[in-house]
Amino acid sequence: MFWKKWLSGGEPKPTEEHSIREEDLRAVVVTDVGRVRTNNEDAARFVRPSKILIRIQKGFLALVADGMGGHAAGEIASQMAVETIAKAYYQQEDTPESSLFVAFAKANRAIWQTANKNVMQKGMGTTCTAVAICQNRLYMAHVGDSRLYLFKDGQLIQLSTDHTYVQELIQQGVISAEEAEKHPDRNMLTRAMGTHNKVEVDVQAISTLFENNDRIMLCSDGLYDYFSLAEIATFLTIPALNEAAQQMVDAAKQRGGHDNITVLLVERVNPEEFQPAKPTENIDIP
């Protein structure tokens, strides 16, 4: 997974976990290559900017990307997405929505240009789902079929909409959501980053507030393919954030693990209940 290599300079283990404490937020990422693939084309990152003023204005940033393309090109595309977006978002002196849009456009163009310079990377692309957390407000940017969920008051809400062929069929009333789960083309993307010079990005401010004891979950399809909403909600009731993430990944592997599996969880904790976490590395944005 890219961010881990970027911080430590070492090769990733099959399963990696990284926890971050920042004020009343906790975050954890768990990623696994799965039981079929030989390399991990997923990438994820939770960003805490080093400067307090930027942190107040632009908040924190969580991203998950799922690459595609073969010959390790998918891994390159997803890594480029999270790296470019993480840097470009904080470089923009604009609203979170506008900053996310510009960051996604820059990442898409960078992946497209790289793919066209190397025949081994031709056609590579990636999904990417990002959420900026500004105080108790959430701002989402999304391309592809990785997902963003909000777990609030015991209810799991899917905030992103898949850019897939079967999702279009659902919206057209051709098939039901239940039929889509077993459709042979359920993972066929209609939109991805890096496959064209320009990409349409879903960007929006989420109307529901992110409050104490709420949790955010970003994940690749290698995780949610194996669970119903009710099952994911049950996992998210596990008190320890790292245990909730790890148990979901382990269960996805037990049910097949046909793809790389990545989950990023963020929770807002009541400051009075906050327990000190182990010291960890933080990503600094200039």
TrEMBL record:
Gene3D superfamilies: PPM-type phosphatase domain. It comes from the Bacteria. Pfam families: PP2C_2. InterPro entries: PP2C, PPM-type-like_dom_sf, PPM-type_phosphatase-like_dom. One of its GO terms (molecular function) is protein serine/threonine phosphatase activity. PROSITE patterns: PPM_2. Residues 26-268 form the PPM-type phosphatase domain. PANTHER family: PROTEIN PHOSPHATASE 1L, PROTEIN PHOSPHATASE 2C. This is Stp1/IreP family PP2C-type Ser/Thr phosphatase.
